[in-house]
Structures are given as C-alpha cells and as structure tokens.
Design brief:
By secondary structure, the protein is mainly beta. The protein is 12% helix and 39% strand. It folds into four domains: 56 residues, OB fold (Dihydrolipoamide Acetyltransferase, E2P) (Beta Barrel); 61 residues, OB fold (Dihydrolipoamide Acetyltransferase, E2P) (Beta Barrel); 58 residues, OB fold (Dihydrolipoamide Acetyltransferase, E2P); 67 residues, Orthogonal Bundle (Arc Repressor Mutant, subunit A). It contains three helices and 18 strands. A five-stranded antiparallel beta sheet has the order 3-2-1-4-5, with no helix packed on it.
Length: 280
C-alpha cells in the first residue's frame, strides 16, 4: 500500500511523457512527475519518494524532503491566511493546510507555529493542527521513571514549560529545572524525573544517566534539581543536617556524592554541592 504523507520505497515500472510511474509490492501505482525524475535510472530500480496529494487531489510522488511528515511535530511558517484557514510552508510545492478549527490561536501571515501533521480521513488530505495536545495521550504511558526521552518544547505554563515526550506524551519541566533558554519547537534530550498521580510526567533536561546511579545518588540529583542546582551540604556537614534534608545517613551520603563526583555530575564546594554544567 502506498502511504500518503510518508516516505515510500517504490519500483520504477515505466516511462511516460509526464514522468515515471512507480509501483509498490501490491501493484499500486503513483506518478513521479518529470521535474523529480533523476538523471540516471533504470526500469525496476527502487527509489525513495514522498507521497502526498497534488493541487488536483491526486496522489503524487516527489523527491523533495518536507519539513514535516504524517504523525510528526514541527515548527512551520504561515505563508498566507485565507477564508478557510491558513497555509503553511512545509518545503513542498503545495502548501500544508491548517483549518481554523485546528488553530489553537488564530494564525497570522509570517508567524511560526508548532503543528502536528495528520491525515484527514474524510478528505484523504494531509492537514496541520496547532492544537498539539490533543494528539498526545498519557492514559497509558510508554515511559518509566528515570528513562531518557526525546523532547519537543510545546508551550509555556505558569509553572514551567510543557514538552512533548517521545512524540506521544505530555510532560512538564518546572521553572526551577530550566537552566537555559527554551523556545517552542526546540528538540532536546531529557529524563523522566517523576510520574505523578494521573500519569503526569515531570521532566528534567539533559541525559543524566539515572539508570547507572544507585538510589541515594538519584535522590540527591532530584534534590539538586528541586533547589535550582544547589544544596547546602558537604561531606563535612553534620549527620543531623544530612538526615533533615535528605533522609539518609552521613555514610550513605558520602558514598553517593563520591559516585556523583566521579561521574562529573556534581561539583563540591565549600558552601555546598552544585549540579555540574555537564548535566545540562
């Protein structure tokens, strides 16, 4: 089956005045117009193409690389706004349509918007939506605490920045865990810091490598994250001070910070422990 909105590897089966006809394993055909025909080719060669609907609503194959494909998120520029909706630049000859009903905020010409691309089942067309949260689902999580995840910055909130987690879930980075400038659409790595009631995901930025760290060290890293990267403890702190703040013995504390220091995840100074810049 030839998939609309995706890359397809198809076989060249014949030449015509309009271009090359390509075929999938089930015998379905699509035209590769002359403007996309490679200089050197042979009948029955395989070629990778992107397939979408042209201006006449016919499936067409192209060798252009779109900025977004079906099931993906990307930040796109609005080229124009018409009576029926907005048209976005996605690197293709035919612009990507975003209906008014799919706009979280009314789009304006020249603006940049984070959108999700999906196939409209009624029309068979690829459509964009800036209501990205409705394409995310936390009812059944595919991630666990301390997993390293791929993030896309979604939109700010009063307490931090919402992020798309592994293109499936919605997560939140709290303001006190943000130590760099973030813009909507930024792609970065993060860690699932905590899973709250209702499958709400707390995310921290960076590849901390929690899985390789013993539990007390993980707890110290969480405490650092919760306190803007600093805690007022050192290996010379009293057992009571350590217990009050971290609920662990001084022996366990010293072992944990020793491991973190060796891994260059923390810096130990006279006034306390700092989260290393290498962790962000």
């Amino acid at each position: 089956m030839i998939k609309i909105g995706e890359y397809n590897t198809l076989s060249i089966i014949r030449e015509t005045d309009h271009g090359l006809f390509l075929e999938d394993r089930d015998g379905n055909e699509v035209l590769l117009p002359n403007r996309y025909v490679p200089e050197d080719y042979k009948i029955w060669d395989d070629i990778e193409v992107f397939v979408y609907l042209d201006n006449e609503e016919r499936p067409v194959a192209v060798t252009d690389k779109p900025y977004i494909t079906k099931g993906e998120f990307a930040v796109l520029r609005c080229n124009q706004v018409a009576k029926i909706g907005a048209f976005l630049d996605w690197g293709m000859l035919k612009e990507l349509f975003c209906p008014f009903k799919e706009q979280a905020f009314k789009m304006k010409k020249g603006g940049w918007y984070l959108v999700y691309c999906y196939l409209d089942e009624e029309t068979g067309r690829l459509v964009a939506s800036s209501k990205t949260s409705r394409f995310l689902d936390n009812s059944e999580l595919t991630v666990n605490q301390y997993d390293e995840v791929d993030l896309i910055v979604s939109h700010p909130s009063d307490i931090g920045m919402n992020v798309i987690v592994n293109k499936k879930h919605l997560g939140l980075i709290y303001t006190n865990n943000i130590h760099r400038d973030l813009s909507v659409g930024d792609k970065l790595k993060g860690v699932v810091k905590k899973i709250r009631q209702g499958n709400k995901l707390d995310i921290t930025i960076g590849q901390i490598g929690y899985r390789s760290i013993e539990p007390n060290a993980k707890f110290i890293l969480e405490a650092l994250d919760d306190n803007n990267g600093f805690i007022n403890l050192t290996d010379k702190s009293s057992p009571d001070a350590i217990k009050d703040l971290l609920q662990m013995s001084k022996k366990a504390f010293k072992k944990a910070i020793g491991n973190l220091y060796k891994q260059r995840q923390i810096e130990i100074k006279e006034d306390g422990i700092y989260l290393s810049n290498r962790s962000h």
